[in-house]
Amino acid sequence: MSMISAENHGLRLATRYAVLTLIAVIFVFPLVFMLMSSLKPDQQLLADTASLRAFLPVGDISFDNYTAAFQRAPVALFILNSVIVTGVTVVLSLLFCSMAAFSFVFIGWKGRDVALSIILATLIVPFETIAIPLLLIASKLPWLGLEGFTTGWLNSYRVQIIPFIADGLTIFLFVQYFKDLPGELIEAARVEGASWVQIYRRIVMPLAGPVLATAAILKFLVMYNQYLWPLMVVQDEGYRPVMVGLQYFFQLNIAWGEVMAYLSLITVPVLAFYLYLQKAFIASIASTGVKG
Amino acid sequence: MASITLKGLKKSYGNAHVIKGVDIEINDGEFVVFVGPSGCGKSTLLRMIAGLEDITSGDLTIAGKQVNDLPPKDRGVAMVFQSYAIFPHMTVRENVAFGLTIAGASQAEKDAKVAEAARILQMEHLLDRRPSQLSGGQRQRVAIGRAIVRKPAVFLFDEPLSNLDAALRMDMRMEIGKLHKALGATMIYVTHDQVEAMTLANKIVVLKDGLVQQIGSPMELYHNPANAFVAGFLGSPSMNFLDVDVQSVQGDQVTVANGALDPVTITSKQGQFTAGTRARLGLRPQYLTPATDLNAGRLHGKVALTERLGAETVIEVTLKDGKALIAALARDAIFPLGTEVSLGFNPAEAHLFAA
C-alpha cells in the first residue's frame, strides 16, 4: 500500500511541477523574446522569429537598438514622467483610499452603506465612457500654482495624477481587509483614549502591510500603463509618459529592434517594483482571496 | 471615586430589544459581576458602560456625571477584552504604555509606570517580547497591564478568562481578586462562569433576556434566590426542581408533596401559594442526604447513575414518579445501580417557587 501511495505521490508531484514549469515558460517567453530581440538588428530579428533562435542571444548581438531608441525619443524623460505620475498617484491613492475605507469600516456615520455602494458601483463604469466629460472638466478647472491663478489642467502632471487618486477598486481592497481586522483591537484603542486619527495611524495602518502592497502594485500597473488619458490631455512632450512615447517608434518605417529596446527599458521599473513588493503581494492575495 | 449608576438603561437594534430597562447601583470600589447565560445581554451592558455601544434610552452616570454621550476615552474606564485585544505589531512594553503614549506622557513617566505594572503582574521579563511570542495567560497579563497602567477609576472585564485552560483560569482569577484589593478601584466583570462570579464578586447581577433577575452578594443570591432562574443558575450541580402539589397553606407555612415526596412543610419566602395549585420545589444537590432507613427520608427512588469524585459522590436518582434528581453527597460512597434510596433534607434549606 505505502509503496503505491509513495509512487502516486511522486507522480503527482512530477505532474504538478511539469504544469507549473509550462505555465512559467508561457509567462516568461514573451519577456525573453523582447529582451533578445532588442539586441538584434531588424533583419535578423524578423528572420529569427520563425525558429527558437528568437529566444536566444545568437547572431549579431549589440546595444545599437538602445542607442537608436535614445536618439529617436527622450526615453529618460518619458520614464521620469511616468515614475513621477505613477509614484505620486500610488502614494496619494494609498493614503486617501485607506482613509476612506477606514471611515467606511470603523466610523459609524449615517449613509455610509449607500455611499460605499455608489463607490463600488463605479467599478463597472469603463474609463472610456467618462473620458470625454472628464477631459472637458479638466480643461476648465482652476489651479493655484507658482505662476498664480490659472484655468485648465491640460499639459501637466496634476491632470494625470489627481483624477486617479481615489478609485473604487482600491477603496474596496482596503474595506475588505479592514473588515477582517479584529474589531476588539479598535475598541481597545478607543477605550485607551486614541482618537480616530491615532487609531488609523498607530493601529490600522501598521497592520495593513499586505493590502498596502496589493493596492500599490495594482495601482502602479494601472498608472504606468496609462495610454488613452495622457494621449488626450498631454500634448507637451515635457509631461508625456512612457506608453504615449511608444508612438515615436511607430512612424512610417517601424524599427522593431528599437521598439523592443524601448519596451525593455520601460519594463524595468515595473519588474523592479513588483519584485520589491512580491512577497507581501502574494501573502495578501492568498489571505484576502482577491484576484489581481 | 467612581460609583456607577444605571437607570432604566435600554438598548435596541431596530426591533430587537437587547437590554430592556436595567437599574443597577454600583458603589465606589465594588467588584460587581454580571452573570447570565449567553445572549442575556451582559456583554452588551458592559460595552454600553464602556461607551462602545450607544445607549438607546436611560441614564448612565459614572462618578456622578452623566456619560451617555461621551466617547469611551472620556469616561475614565479601562477594559480587558475576551480576546485580550493586544496590538500584534507592538512589543509588550509598547502595548502596556499605549494609553500613556496617546495621552502624551513623557518617556520617563511611561518607563516608571510600565515598570510598576510589570512588577504587579510579574511580567518584567516579557516587556520586550512580541504578543506572538506569548502564551494565553501571558497575553492576558499584558491586557490587564495595559488597563492598570493608566490608573483608571473603573475597570471593565469582558469574560477575560474564558480563553484560558482550567488551571490558569484559577490562578488568574485569584490574581484579579488580589488586584482588586490592591487597587481599590471599581470593577465590573462579565462572565458566564458562576465560580468566577461567586468567588470574585462583592455584588452579583444576574441577567436574563436583557433584564436583571436579582442583585445581591454571592451568598444572598445562593441562599435566597429571588426566582427559580437565579436559583438554578447559581450552584453546581444546579438546583433540582420538583413539580409539587400544594396541600395546605397557613401563613407562610406551605405544605407540599407529590408521588415521590412525602408531605413537607416549607417556609415560603417568595410569592403566594394556595392549596390545590402546583408549585416548584427547589432542592440543592448538596443539601440532600441519604437516610439510614428507607422510610426515614422524604424522597424515594432508585440510583440511576453514580459519579465518584473522591471528595464527593454525585448520584442521579430516578424518583418514584419517574423524574430525575441529582444529589451531591459528601465523601466517597458506593451506590450500586438500581439500589433503592431514600433522601432527606432540611425544609429550611428548600426553596419554593411559583409553578
Outline the structure in words.
The complex is a heterodimer of chains A (292) and B (355). Chain A has helices spanning 2-37, 42-48, 64-72, 75-106, 112-121, 127-140, 158-161, 168-180, 183-191, 196-204, 209-224, 228-233, 242-245, 256-288, and strands spanning 142-145, 148-151. The longest helix of chain A has 36 residues, at 2-37. A two-stranded antiparallel sheet of chain A has the order 1-2. Chain A has 292 residues and is an all-alpha fold. By secondary structure, chain B is an alpha+beta fold. Chain B contains 9 helices and 20 strands. Chain B has helices at 42-50, 92-96, 98-102, 107-120, 136-148, 166-183, 194-200, 218-223, 228-233; strands at residues 4-13, 16-26, 31-35, 57-62, 65-66, 77-80, 154-158, 186-191, 203-208, 211-216, 240-250, 253-258, 261-267, 278-283, 289-290, 299-308, 312-319, 324-330, 340-344, 351-354. In chain B, the strands form 4 sheets. Chain B has a 6-stranded mixed beta sheet, with helices on both faces. In chain B, strand 9 and strand 10 form a beta hairpin. Chain B starts with a strand and ends with a strand. Classes of the chains: A mainly alpha (292), B alpha+beta (355). Chain A binds chain B through residues 182, 184-185, 187-195, 198, 202-203, 206-207, and chain B through 50-52, 71-73, 77-79, 81-83, 85-89, 98-99, 102-103, 143, 146, 150.
Largest interface: which pair?
Answer: A-B, 17 and 24 residues
Q: Treating each run of at least 4 consecutive H or I residues as one helix, how many helices of chain B?
A: 9
Radius of gyration of chain A over alpha carbons?
24 Å
Termini gap of chain B:
44 Å
Our count of helices of chain A gives 14
Low-pLDDT regions of chain A: 288-292
Order of helices and strands of chain A: HHHHHHEEHHHHHHHH
Note the overall shape of chain A: flat
What is the terminal separation of chain A in angstroms? 42 Å
What order do the helices and strands of chain B follow?
EEEHEEEHHHHEHEHEEHHEEEEEEEEEE
